[in-house]
Amino acid sequence: MHVARLSLTDYRNYERAELVLGPGATVFVGRNGQGKTNLVESIGYLATLGSHRVSGDQALIRAGADAAIVRALLAHGDRELLIELQLNRQGANRAQLNRSPVKTRELPRYAHSVLFAPEDLAIVRGEPSVRRRLLDELLVQRTPRLAGVMADYERVLKQRNSLLKSARARGLAAAQLPTLDIWDERLVQLGSELIDQRVALVGELAAPLAAAYHSIVDADHAPGLRPLLSIDGADPESETPADAAPRSAAASEAIAAIAGDGASATAVRFAEAIRNLRPKELERGITLVGPHRDDVVLLLNGLPAKGYASHGESWSFALALRLASAELLRRDSTTGDPVLVLDDVFAELDRLRRERLAAAIGGFEQVLVTAAVLEDVPEPLIARIVHIDAGHIVEEEATTDA
């Protein structure tokens, strides 16, 4: 799949922009702050329903405008799809597919992309939320319905936290909160599916991660991943298991009630963790267990990459994770390769890693690169150059083979 045409209206610093694209590599060149990243960010948003730079949509709408519009014509073989997304300053966002209204969460079913950015270093060195987001964005692109499951889980979590905070403020005990059990059941139902999906994805990433890391580094550092689950007593901050209370007959009945009939092993573990942590949750007024508290340990040579890996190794691990994600999407998608977006990545890499990364992604159908300095981009990726200045496409040029 590739983006054949991109149109922006009131998006970031673009009042209007029209860009015709094609297969192969395109480099967007311009000084910092001119709008290169804004172009590729809009493509990434269609695939993940989020920006890699900000958490909300308001910053994506041009100052003074009520809404921003992103249109992309996607091509795969002889088939073309027109995707349109309107980001509203007030009210819900709206989406269309071939001019017919669809739910916004349906867009990742059609638009697949993988974005590499300087912020990716936080995948290795940052907080657990960064790694959770990496997994969840990939899950949504592979199985779009999970966007609904994630949204439902967040709503239930918000309601449950509100109830726990209210109980703490009023000094209420669990027995005085009959609705808490209802939220517990829903939390376990939705959360267990997310946990199982993430764990399965971590397993699938193992082989392509090892291959991608080797392609960038050409060394056997045994990269790996291991889920760190709060339902099993793990604390992502300390990795120290919590003490579990002995299970009585009454506790077993309570767990069964929360998990539901025919519950999976994950649901039972989740329900038991909720029972064990309920006194602490009432004390703190917050939900202490669930997929929103999980993490993934990234390993190099059997040691956690966070804290042990060098700067270069951390960068290589982050890039390998993105490459592994692209390989999974390429393997499973009926629309071909995902669009690869490299946002100012080469400036962060030494010459050898630049060349090896360029070689690793050379076989993908479409690669979009941003750079402040064209010399930072390996020559195999300089097939077409687009110059950007202050939210305007000022010049396009195609390179020719010698």
From TrEMBL:
- Identify a single GO molecular function assigned to this protein: single-stranded DNA binding
Locate the residues binding ATP.
Answer: 30-37
Q: Domain of life here? A: Bacteria
Q: Where in the cell is it found?
A: Cytoplasm
Q: Where is the signal peptide?
A: none
A Pfam family the protein falls into = SMC_N
Q: Which InterPro entries match?
A: DNA-binding_RecF, DNA-binding_RecF_CS, P-loop_NTPase, RecF/RecN/SMC_N, RecF_2
> RecF/RecN/SMC N-terminal domain spans which residues?
3-371
Entry keyword set? ATP-binding, Cytoplasm, DNA damage, DNA repair, DNA replication, DNA-binding, Nucleotide-binding, SOS response
Mind telling me which GO cellular component terms the entry cites?
cytoplasm
Q: Name one GO biological process term.
A: SOS response
Query: What function is annotated for this protein?
Result: The RecF protein is involved in DNA metabolism; it is required for DNA replication and normal SOS inducibility. RecF binds preferentially to single-stranded, linear DNA. It also seems to bind ATP.
Q: Which HAMAP family match?
A: RecF (MF_00365)
Give the UniProt family note: Belongs to the RecF family.
Q: Know the name of this protein?
A: DNA replication and repair protein RecF
Which species is listed as the source?
Agromyces mariniharenae
